[in-house]
Amino acid sequence: MSASASPVLPPLDGSLSLIPGLVDFHAESNSTSPFFVFPFPDLSSDTLGSISFLEFAQATHRVAHSFRPGRKGEEGAVIAIIVNCDTLLYHALVAGLIRAGLVPFPMSPRNSVPAIASLMEHTSCHHIVSQPTFAPFTDAVRESLPSGFAMHVDDLPALTDVFPTLAPSFDPPRAVPDPYPPPACAASPSDIVLYLHSSGSTGFPKPIPHTHTTILHWCRMPIFVESRRKAIRWGCMALPPFHVMGLCSQLYAPLLSGQPTSLFPPRAIVSAPPVVPTPQNTIETARKTGCTAIESVPAFVEAWSQNEDDAKYLASLQALIFAGGPLSRANGEKLVDKGVRLLACYGATEFGLVTCVFDDGVEEPSPIGKTRADWEWMQLPRECMPRWVPQGDGTFELQMLTCETHQPCIENLPNGERGFATSDLWEPHPTKPGLWRIVGRADDVIVLGSGEKTVPILQENHIGVHPWVAGAVMFGRGYQQV
């Protein structure tokens, strides 16, 4: 199939396994279409490189053979991933481990040693995929685990071993791997596909299990369904692949839509660390790779709003979506005034990306419909069952109730109720029913514009004990620092 032809789209009825079934569908139906596109060989190049759906599928077979030869050993073993590598290798590793019947657990390498040890204990994880540069860190994790808790570290495969077509020279006949043995039986809807972890802003991060059911529910949400209907080519190269935003836009989105995702060039080819994202190299890569929409953290959007050329380019896209934190109203308005289709997106590791997108269909000012001017207001899709709990001050805490079309990954409501209390506070639009805007938190967490979270109580208490200080209050929601 040529890259210019319309891709054959996979069904979302649960008939394909997650994730290998989707990968194999595209390897057969859209084999030569690009899965990832990137400047090649480096950021300064105007030449594009790509990994096709077939090449990505073959990469997952190589990974599976590497970590569980012959499908021998324990089925469903949890494998922690603590690496700093190119995004395309990261997702091949995640998908390949799933193909091997293992349960990948992507972990932020910024976690502390006790946090990693806690995550491993809670998930009975005895294996880590890592790199030599992390050896002192993983040794410290081993020391932090209880006595007798076995831990084995495997090295991350080399990029060119997983994607031999990226090597300076390769032998095409030898580049085709043997098919990995399929599972003996179909997976149960409640089987865990992978783990992600919470932010850890109020304590150690917590493991969040993602089952076949919860991932399938995510895949039917508007951000995926509408993106595939519009054939969106996402530019999300700046997002970390271990984060829910990166996983969704870099791995899930192309598997659901058949459209490529734009990434930074793989730097392991020249034995260099991955590209460090900046607002400038992100938007330059988006330009070069021909993406039609960008998903970003607010901090980058703030920077682009200050540059006329960047704003002009962003206005040519089908959408600029921000998530992970608040965006300043002044800079948001500035971009909208310059013709940028700016949209807020809301979600979490515990329940997915649950806001409608591309829903600002009213071009002229309207007392009812959502317009471009309503960029910071969101509506939840009919697949979800939200409950708005009044706080007595005009704001409402959002709770996501479990229903047939949306099951949160974890449930934390009291008295046996099924659902997830988000601790996020919202206010309703004064004149447009169904539109809501997030305004803060029910707990003490401050969400910065970078998407990072901080809990101010310890700092406030520390400052407040000084005899010259009557009281201390930290603030900074939407800013780059407190």
From TrEMBL:
SUPFAM superfamilies: Acetyl-CoA synthetase-like (SSF56801). One of its GO terms (biological process) is fatty acid metabolic process. One of its GO terms (molecular function) is medium-chain fatty acid-CoA ligase activity. It holds the Pfam family AMP-binding. Residues 46-372 form the AMP-dependent synthetase/ligase domain. Transmembrane segments: none annotated. This is Acetyl-CoA synthetase-like protein. It comes from Wolfiporia cocos (strain MD-104).
